[in-house]
Write a structure and sequence with these properties.
By secondary structure, the chain is α/β, with parallel strands linked by helices. About 40% of the residues lie in helices and about 15% in strands. The protein has eight helices and seven strands. Strands 4-3-5-6-7 form a five-stranded mixed sheet. The longest helix is centred in the N-terminal third of the chain and has 18 residues, at about 40-55. It is elongated, with a radius of gyration of 20 Å. The N and C termini lie far apart (about 55 Å). The model has no long low-confidence stretch (mean pLDDT about 90).
């Protein structure tokens, strides 16, 4: 059994960093050491930024985006086309589409996809609030773009959303060319996302 060569505070930092996506124990140790070596330039400002984020960051009550106020920057922007809602699985997908700057619409973050094997049902996602948003008396929505990942769970979720909107005059489309089966939006390049948005088809 190897013994620790650092104090508990540093070990705690390493353990927490190792929980981040893409960072294992070895990468976390390197990151922690780098932060400590650059204490004044990196560690101190990072700690302050994280404390501020903890205090101020919240979920948008309208779309589920992450921001420092609610409604978020996107939902509050009067220049957005409110006739279109892009439905995504996660905030990272929203950010990916925004980076590509391919559409000036609003969004709705589901918070995941339907997955009976994992015990994730419709009540665990923000599907009901999306339907309510679309069917609301003051709704200007004319099109829903279902921009979920091209996985079995993603397609199941897309079909479920479509069923919930039966009887409305809402046009329902989905991403088409460029998004590979099994692909995740957050890992696609901007050119691929542009092609997928522009060649969307009716669901």
């Amino acid at each position: 059994m190897s013994k620790s060569v650092t104090g508990p505070e540093i070990e705690r930092l390493i353990q927490l960093l190792a929980k981040l996506p893409g960072l294992g124990p070895r990468s976390a140790r390197r990151a922690a050491l780098h932060l400590i070596k650059k204490k004044d330039q990196l560690l101190s400002p990072l700690a302050a930024a994280m404390g501020e984020a903890l205090e101020k960051v919240r979920l948008c009550e309208t779309c589920g985006n992450v921001d420092t106020f609610s409604p978020c920057t996107i939902c509050s922007d009067p220049r957005r086309d409110r006739s279109i809602i892009v439905v995504v699985e996660d905030v990272s997908d929203l950010w990916a589409l925004e980076r590509a700057a391919v559409i000036n619409a609003t969004y709705h973050v589901l918070g995941g996809v339907l997955s009976p094997l994992d015990g994730i049902g419709p009540e665990d996602l923000a599907i009901a609030s999306m339907v309510e948003r679309v069917k609301g008396a003051d709704s200007a929505v004319r099109e829903i773009i279902i921009a979920v990942n091209a996985t079995v769970e993603g397609q199941t979720t897309a079909h479920y959303i479509t069923d919930q909107l039966v009887g409305t005059d809402i046009k329902i489309t989905r991403l088409a060319h460029g998004v590979p089966v099994g692909g995740e939006l957050d890992y696609l390049d901007e050119g691929t996302l542009v092609a997928a948005i522009k060649s969307r088809s009716r669901f």
